[in-house]
Amino acid sequence: MRCALTITGKVQNAGYRGFIEDKARDRHLKGYVFNASDGSVKMICEGACDKIDEFVDVITLHEKDIFVENIIRDDISGFALPIPDTFGRVKTDTKEDTYRKLDKGIDAIKSVKKDTVLLKDIKEGQDKLIGGQDKLIGGQDKHTELLTDIKEILEKIAEK
């Protein structure tokens, strides 16, 4: 069986095509997937009907980064359409898509930098806390020595 799938929702710029590719290969489907300019993801797939049904169920995600609203399935028959031996992605990104993805990557790097700065602040705070604990322990040692001295003096007074 061969069919065309159109997937709508929040399905681009989140690694969805790679996910689709992996799940299709797991089921030994043939075909290809690509991002369409209308924001949908489209694909042609070929394989056993039950495997395609299972595949459609697995790729229907409702997560934070990927949210599938609808999958339109059209059976294809009656004309020859070349299908690769293994399932793969067709690169359809425009220059604008590439720039948008680069901007997204830059934003991700900036957030890592912010987290790293925060870690430095936490480390400095931990160092100060450890220094304060060391001083407290040193003060406790002096306090213990003083109490020992006082005890010795009181014992000497009690002896007299």
Characterize the overall form: rod-shaped
Query: Helical content, roughly?
Result: 40-55%
Q: Give the strand line-up of the largest sheet.
A: 4-1-3-2-5
Number of helices: 3
CATH class of the largest domain: Alpha Beta
Distance from first to last alpha carbon: 109 Å
CATH architecture descriptor of the largest domain: 2-Layer Sandwich
Beta-strand content: 15-25%
Main β-sheet description: 5 strands, mixed
Order of helices and strands: EHEEHEEH
Structural class: alpha+beta
Number of domains: 2
Indicate the CATH topology of the largest domain.
Alpha-Beta Plaits
The low-confidence runs, each spanning 5 or more residues with pLDDT under 50, are none
Written account of the structure:
There is one protein chain. It is built from three helices and five strands; from the N terminus they run E-H-E-E-H-E-E-H. By secondary structure, the chain is of the alpha+beta class. It folds into two domains: 2-92, Alpha-Beta Plaits (2-Layer Sandwich), CATH 3.30.70; 94-160. Strand 2 (30-35) and strand 3 form a beta hairpin. Helix 1 packs antiparallel against helix 2. The chain is rod-shaped, with a radius of gyration of 33 Å. The mean pLDDT is 83.
State the gist of this model.
Helices cover 54% and strands 20% of the residues.
Features:
single chain, Alpha-Beta Plaits, 160 residues, 54% helix, 2 domains
Topology of this protein?
Elements: E1 2-10, H1 16-26, E2 30-35, E3 41-46, H2 49-59, E4 67-75, E5 88-89, H3 95-159
Parallel strand pairs: 2-5
Antiparallel strand pairs: 1-3, 1-4, 2-3
Helix pairs in contact: 1-2
